[in-house]
Prior knowledge:
Number of helices: 2
Oligomer: single chain
Structural class: alpha+beta
Strand order of the largest sheet: 1-2
Radius of gyration: 16 Å
Amino acid sequence: MATISHNHVNYQARLDLIQAVLQEPFGLKEKAKVTPIQYDPECPFKYSNFVYPTNDGPGQPGCVPIPDDTKELIFRLANPDAEGMIRTTRIENEVATIALASAALAGFVP
Length: 110
């Protein structure tokens, strides 16, 4: 019998977390379609992130609604087992990087 790879250990738990976030805080009434992007359960290396697009965008009271022309909402879950990352500052560094990239691209029109 084949062993489960380190990337696939909590696969269903990650899918369940995304469904719970969409249904509980965001109030989505039915299960959303959630499919991993470029996921290989047999990959010998530990993924640093798991990325899942969904087909349904949530609506939360008191928040700016997601634009109507949005086709997918993407969840990016950090892998706590990823190697080569400083765990204590990883999320802060990633948020800062995303904010800087967003600001740099704010005036870009494709």
